[in-house]
Amino acid sequence: MQNFNIEKSTLLYSESIKYISGGVNSPARAFRSVGGNPIFIKRAKGSKIYSEDGIEFIDYVCSWGPMILGHAHPRIVKTLKNIIEDGTSFGAPTDIETKLASLIVKMVPSIEKVRMVNSGTEATMSAVRLARGFTGREKIVKFCGCYHGHGDSFLIKAGSGALTLGVPDSQGITKGTASDTIVANFNDIDSVKTVIKGIENQVAAVIVEPIAGNMGVILPENGFLESLSKLTEDNGIILIFDEVITGFRVSKGGAQQLYNIMPDLTTLGKIIGGGLPVGAYGGRTEIMDYIAPDGPVYQAGTLSGNPLAMHAGYETLLALSEEGFYEKLEEKSKMLEEDISENSEKLGIKIQYNRVGSMATLFFSENRVKDFTSATNSDIEKFKNYYHLMLKMGIYLPPSRFESTFISSAHSEEDIETTVKANYEALNLLK
Ligand SMILES: *Cc1c(COP(=O)(O)O)cnc(C)c1O
Predict the structure, then answer these.
(1) Per the residue annotation, which of 53, 59, 242, 264 is the catalytic one?
(2) Domain containing 50 — which CATH number?
(3) What mean pLDDT value characterizes the chain?
């Protein structure tokens, strides 16, 4: 085992907190929910990240999802090097935007037209504005524990960092905005029917992570998404699938392809940027033509569709379109699930390993985790200890029990075996 000395990271953190709020540019990075201070990363290659202290980790954060090809993939690096000399942003259309857009339309079943933005947050904010403009209605329904970026309308019972910090309702959001967001329970169609009863014709959109990834991974139960699709259709409500994580992650066409459901609008992010800042939203032409300059709903962006991000996204989507890509990812992910489950059975530690393809969460819980309540009932102390034990053994997991781990095409069988061994040792120490 490597010498686990994080003195340099600790020093760098003490500097960063002087100049950056909380020392980090996104709260989930701050290790607040597991204790200790964050590890500063110097570089990454393939399945590995290397800290400023010189420690090598097998990385299961994958930049919180985007790095499905692993870090510094030769194809992406080569492309970026080649094009950077031609300029990095023009504020005018480029052909690569059309190329990426047409590839997205080809891959994601429900998308006929798409608009590029710079983050998942922008994508969801814009999609909701579009849904409101299109329907002429104001309210939206979201699910408890689902995270849709940090737009005001979504920071009501949100997941991810907001959940970890225990501030489900952020300060700084007006009562008016909050009152337009209605919260229902994931995997509970009756809760949706109840909250919209009598105000069906005021609801513009229902937004959902078709596979929840921000209260840990939670699978949609049989029939939940189908019922949601029917309920929204019957009431003229726009169904938005937030596929910022699941898009290009669980299949080429995302969760909508996996479960064969056509939402009205889809939001994308993470993987479509290939590691650069990109988001997108798309859907039926009839709805998408409501956006400016064709339609009355305004949305714009100085750096939207910038050539570096578009090229990185395009090359990423081409790479994962190759024959057998998702099958290989599934094989490795399944191997990890089976071996970890075997470890826990051998050691008599009750866990729930929720997984769809290469996204998964290990919950320390005796009961099935199927919604926000069962996720928050998982054992936090066990998770904290497990987290630090794994970290010391060179396994870099997301520093919160409400996040998904990700496997990339760069993870090797050897990486998986090393991880399974570390998991055995950690679980054994937790007994
Ligand atoms: C990460 C995430 C977002 C926000 O994307 P950012 O690029 O961080 O703004 C939105 N929705 C889901 C489901 C996410 O996981």
Answers:
(1) 242
(2) 3.90.1150.10
(3) 95
291, 320, 349 - which closes a domain: 320
Domain end position, chosen among 320, 354, 380: 320
Query: Which residue from 62, 214, 265, 276 has its CB within 8 A of the most atoms of ligand 1, so it is best to mutate?
Result: 214
pTM for this one?
Answer: 0.97
Instruction: Say if residue 117 is in the same domain as residue 163.
Output: yes
Residue 1 lies in a domain: no
Active site includes 139? no
> What is the CATH number for 246?
3.40.640.10
Domain that holds residue 332: 7-72+326-430
Residue 168: the pLDDT is 47
Residue 44 has pLDDT above 70, yes or no: yes
| Widest distance between CA atoms in the chain | 62
Distance CA 296, CA 89 (A): 27
What's the confidence (pLDDT) of residue 318? 98
Residues 43 and 108 in one domain: no
Residue 242 annotated among the catalytic residues of the structure: yes
- For the segment 196-207, the average pLDDT, to the nearest whole number, is 97
Between 48-52, 96-100, 159-163, the lowest mean confidence (pLDDT) is in 159-163
* Cα 160 to ligand 1 centre (Å): 9
How buried is residue 301: exposed, middle or buried, by Cβ count under 10 Å (0-12/13-18/19+)? middle
List, for residues 337-390, the tens digit of each pLDDT value.
Answer: 999 999 999 999 999 999 999 999 999 999 999 999 999 999 999 999 999 999
Cα dihedral: 33, 423, 373, 269 (round 10): 70
Q: What percent of the chain has pLDDT over 90?
A: 93
Ligand 1 close to Cβ of residue 403 (< 6 A):
no
**According to the model, what pLDDT value does residue 169 have?**
66
**Is cis: bond before 220, omega within 30 of 0?**
no
- Residues near 366 by beta carbon (within 8 Å), at least 6 away in sequence: 350
Residue 412 in any domain: the answer is: yes
270 noted as active-site residue: yes
Cβ–ligand 1 contact at 70 (below 6 Å): no
Cα separation, 144 vs 255, in Å, equals 19
| Residue-level pLDDT at 257 | 98
- Ligand 1 pocket mutation pick from 244, 250, 268 by most atoms within 8 angstroms of CB: 244
